Amino acid sequence: MMSIEFRKKIVDSWFSYLQAQICKEFEFLERNKLKFSQRDWSKSKKKEGGGTSFLLTGGKVFDKVGVNKSTVSGIFPKQFRSKILGAEKNGKYWASGVSVVAHMKNPKIAAIHFNTRFIVTSKEWFGGGVDATPSFKDNKEKKIIHDCLKMVCKQNKKNYIKYKKWCDEYFYLPHRKESRGIGGIFFDYETKDWTKNFKFVRELGLTFIDVSKKIIKRKKKIKWSKRDKEIQLYKRGRYVEFNLLYDRGTKFGLNSGGNIDSILMSLPPEAKWK
Questions:
Q1: Which candidate, 12, 127, 129, places its Cα nearest to that of 73?
Q2: What is the C-alpha separation between 34 and 97, in angstroms, rounded?
Q3: Over the stretch 135-175, which tens digit does the pLDDT of each residue have?
Q4: Is the model's pTM score more than 0.90?
Q5: What are the beta bridge partners of residue 68?
Q6: Annotated catalytic residue within 103, 113, 146, 175
Q7: Residue 146 is among the residues annotated as catalytic for this protein
Q8: Structural domains of the chain, count
Q9: N or C: the chain end with fewer CB closer than 10 Å?
Q10: Residue 153 domain-assigned?
């Protein structure tokens, strides 16, 4: 069996590749020579790692899309250790992951989110998911997204129904008593059979690219009005509320000494509240 250090290197390398592929495909969708800007960052203790953030704004397709990848290590604050599997005793951790949030210019196209991660404490596991937040009901768009996710789960013998339910429960705003979007899949603490879980994580990343291209190409030429944009901005407000109040990734990043700009990359460029 390969060592944990070798597994870390393999995962880290794959996440770097996936980040590059997502940026390449999203730049191609823009078709106007608009490119991602790149920002590298390191933790205050450089030996504890860092990451690279790619950001594209003001496009024909994307109002704002961020594609982040980080590989970090360190010791969690004592008050946070009980919330992380295997970190209760000494708080030591290593983590690598990719996170993507795309806010569309066209209000008729759903905002999409993807993340995947590999975390090592005294335990080791994969987690992640894909979900969408539309501003307008579109059953066909919803079916496209869920059919693709259902297929990748089936091909990897993963429980789509369980992951979908977990996603629905996770992306819920209790103070609003409403869901953030139309769901997708969410999973965490996949500790058994590293090889099979890593295969699933790789294929899910490629599925995310495929899903994104399908929903964007289907609607990118559809016309929209100022009223449509207003509705989208109010919907984005819910996105902001969830990410600042409940999102695990935001909390993990803040408690692991991550880069603040990268952590808050998920926030839209503009939002409104009534």
A1: 12
A2: 25
A3: 999 999 999 999 999 999 999 999 999 999 999 999 999 99
A4: yes
A5: 53, 99
A6: 113
A7: no
A8: 1
A9: C
A10: yes
